[in-house]
Amino acid sequence: MTVSKPVVLIAEELSPATVDALGPDFEIRSTDGADRARLLADLPGADAVLIRSATQMDAEAIAAAPDLKIIARAGVGLDNVDTRAATDAGVMVVNAPTSNVISAAELTCGHILGVARNIAPANGALKAGEWKRSKYTGVELYEKTLGIIGLGRIGALVAERMKAFGMKVVAYDPYVTAARAQQIGAQLLGLDELLETADFVTIHMPRTPETLGMISDDQFARMKDTAYVINVARGGLIDEDALGRALEAKTIGGAAVDVFVKEPAVDLDFFGYDNAVVTPHLGASTAEAQEKAGISVANSVRLALAGELVPDA
Ligand code: MLT
Question: Which reaction does it catalyse (predicted)?
């Protein structure tokens, strides 16, 4: 008699290290978590589901998986998982909260450098046959002020890296003490003061009802008209319509955005501005981050399905 193995459903593209770390004791199935109908059809029979940010594990999806024991999100945050519905259904939820913090911080630094020196628009123009040196004159980061909203793991890594460029770092984070900020080398300010002071504003907050739209018309109005705003954290922290208005009115110098209210996002109005640089949710998309996230969630799944304690990541 053959004993059936627990089923692990992989709903998004994950590092091959994930399957290696799961080992031979599971039946691995795959689906496309962004294709809702397919996801719902493939969830029955799954003991575990592995996701990134494109799969909505809401109450309906959880109800479609009566055998489900664990939802594992290979990344930071759990905003695409209905944790209450999971708890009610007795389903464990895990993530990999430190797996991609370096990658997210590095992409942020890349975007800061990119907008300061117009790398993306100059690249586009040159490839379109335009050799325009003065049009793409940028600014130095040296002695400029970087305003970090959210001085958690990623915000602190951004601070550490951008100080190497000679930037002065100020930060807003109601949960961080002045002593911790000082240790990171950042001066804590109120949000309004940060917005009025910073030459570059980067946001590193989770998406919650309180943080959604926290950068909107009033906040853009406070910023310097030369300031750049960067969001590699979560779609919607910056109000997308307000960003379009700020770019149109030239209330700010420009923006770099990696995350969007609704993803995939391919044709938002503000994409039309030369000084708005966009990337398709690449913060965690490095080989290293994906390997770390994949191994971390695979280990959690192995332990959970063996009935063992899953330690906090
Ligand atoms: C994360 O939350 O860690 C990332 O957004 C995951 C992803 O890139 O899918």
Answer: (R)-2-hydroxyglutarate + NAD(+) = 2-oxoglutarate + NADH + H(+); (2R)-3-phosphoglycerate + NAD(+) = 3-phosphooxypyruvate + NADH + H(+)
